[in-house]
């Protein structure tokens, strides 16, 4: 969601200041309703009309499953000029990521221009499991694994794992790789969970999102979601 005046300005129709004037004067419509309040938030799905001119036509819905590489921003654009996930997708549509992965986190990320589905998939009540593979600077003890299974309180709320499995242990480097599945989407939640036990996440990769996996993809590659997969995502509500 972005401020209405910002969206108008970014469309190239006019400056942001001029867009604010149009809004105050009642010359802007969003989805058929006149909007006069500055700061009104709009989505990529909304139809915006300024002075009887539609800023964009309704786009066909597009859905992508992307294998995000490291050092990539989960955003449409970056003020520092860094590579964004949208830069990898060959489409003229105004797609955007569903949720986000940290700059140094790799793995599965969905991108779409379907605002309804994006809202559904990111809403806390949907309870979609996201499974991550975390490489940590240590080897978890049986007691620590038990604590994770039982649930650990992070910032006033207990995090209960859906998946927990030690995949690899390297005693020489004193590191291990652990599969961790969570249904919530708080920022840095995996790093905070591991940090609460006194360890640090060295590498983090999202392996799956609900029933979707990275099968067949390499970092930086993507594929279209099938109609069947999109319908199944909608059914998660």
Q: Tell me, what's the shape? A: elongated
Using the coordinates shown, work out and report the CATH topology of the largest domain.
Answer: Alpha-Beta Plaits
Helix content: 10-25%
State the total count of DSSP E strands: 17
How does this model look, in words?
- The protein has 237 residues and is of the alpha+beta class.
- The chain folds into 3 domains: 2-54, Structural Genomics Hypothetical 15.5 Kd Protein In mrcA-pckA Intergenic Region, Chain A; 63-125 and 212-234, Pseudouridine synthase I, catalytic domain, N-terminal subdomain (Alpha-Beta Plaits, 2-Layer Sandwich); 129-209, Pseudouridine synthase.
- It is built from 6 helices and 17 strands.
- Strands 7, 8, 9, 10, 13, 14, 15, 16 and 17 form a 9-stranded mixed beta sheet that branches. Strands 3-2-5-6 form a 4-stranded antiparallel beta sheet, with no helix packed on it.
- The two termini are 21 Å apart.
- The model has no long low-confidence stretch (mean pLDDT 92).
